[in-house]
Design a protein that fits this description.
266 residues, alpha+beta, 60s Ribosomal Protein L30, Chain: A, 3-stranded antiparallel β-sheet, 6 helices, globular
Length: 266
C-alpha cells in the first residue's frame, strides 16, 4: 500500500509539445494560452524560457560579430578569461544580471542574428500572467528563465530572470529546524529552484520552451509581487563583484599606489 503524501510534499513538472516557432510580434500570451488551455489549473506555475519571450518582443538583432553585441550589452565587467575558443566575459547587463556573455544568445536563432534578453523580464512576466489569467480564468504565476553558470560550481542551471504572481523567495529566518534551533540565514530562492527543475523536462533543444509546475500553490500570490529582480545582489551584498584574479590585481595596484605615496624612510 502506498503511503499517503502530505499536501506540499509533492511536485509535478511537465513540458507540453506543440509550441511551434515564435516570431517577432507574435502574441505570446495567446500562443501559451492555447498550448495550456486543457491542462492548466489554479495554483500552477507557468515557466517560460526567455528565448521565446525575446523572440516575441523583437529582441532578435543582426550581429555578424556576437562579441560586439556582448560589448553593447555590458554595464560592468566582472571577469574575463582566455580559453581556446577566445575570451569568456562575465559581465553585468542592463537587466542587472551577472552572466556570461551578458546573456547574449546565438543558439536557436537564425545565422547572422543573436537574441538579447527581454528589456524588463519582470514586466514581461506580468504581461504574460495577465494574458493567461484573462484567457484561461485561472490563478497562476509566471516565471521566465535563462541559463547561467555559478560561482562555486561547474555546469549550468536555469534561473529565474523574471517572475509575476510568485513569492520568489521563502524567508525561513526565525523559524525552528527539526531540533528546535532557530534558523538565522536561510532564505530559499523559490523562483530559481522552479526554473532549474523545469529545465529537466524542457531540455535545451527539445522544442518545449514552456513548462507547468503543480504543487506550489502556496507560493502563488494574488498580486504580481516584487519579481525576480528581488533576488539580485548588489553593492556590498555581492561577494563576487569582481573575479578572483581581478580582485587580486585591484588590491595589488592599490597597495603599490599606497606605497608610492609614502615618503622614503617612513
Amino acid at each position: 500500500m502506498t503511503a499517503p503524501v502530505e499536501p506540499g510534499a509533492r511536485l509535478e513538472a511537465w513540458a507540453p509539445a506543440g509550441m511551434g516557432e515564435v516570431r517577432p510580434g507574435d502574441d505570446l500570451g495567446a500562443l501559451i494560452g492555447t498550448l495550456l488551455e486543457d491542462v492548466i489549473a489554479d495554483g500552477d506555475v507557468v515557466v517560460v524560457t526567455s528565448k521565446i519571450v525575446s523572440k516575441a518582443e523583437g529582441r532578435v538583432v543582426a550581429a555578424d560579430d556576437r562579441e560586439q553585441a556582448i560589448t553593447e550589452q555590458t554595464v560592468r565587467v566582472v571577469a574575463t578569461r582566455e580559453h581556446p575558443g577566445g575570451v569568456l566575459r562575465i559581465v553585468e547587463n542592463p537587466q542587472g544580471l551577472v552572466m556570461a556573455a551578458a546573456g547574449v544568445d546565438a543558439s536557436n536563432t537564425a545565422p547572422g542574428t543573436v537574441l538579447l534578453l527581454p528589456v524588463d523580464p519582470d514586466e514581461s512576466a506580468r504581461r504574460l500572467r495577465a494574458a493567461l489569467t484573462g484567457r484561461l480564468r485561472v490563478r497562476v504565476a509566471v516565471v521566465i528563465t535563462d541559463t547561467a553558470g555559478r560561482a562555486w560550481r561547474d555546469g549550468v542551471v536555469d534561473l529565474a530572470i523574471g517572475a509575476a504572481g510568485l513569492r520568489v523567495a521563502e524567508d525561513l529566518r526565525g523559524t525552528p529546524d527539526s531540533h528546535g534551533q532557530m534558523l538565522s540565514a536561510t532564505v530559499v530562492a523559490v523562483a530559481d529552484e522552479i526554473a532549474a527543475a523545469t529545465d529537466l523536462v524542457r531540455g535545451k533543444a527539445a522544442g518545449r520552451p514552456v513548462a507547468v509546475v503543480r504543487g506550489l500553490a502556496r507560493h502563488v500570490t494574488d498580486d504580481d509581487g516584487p519579481g525576480a529582480r528581488a533576488l539580485q545582489r548588489h553593492g556590498e551584498s555581492d561577494l563576487f563583484r569582481q573575479g578572483a584574479d581581478e580582485a587580486w590585481r585591484a588590491g595589488y595596484d592599490a597597495g603599490v599606489a599606497a606605497a608610492g605615496e609614502r615618503e622614503p624612510g617612513s
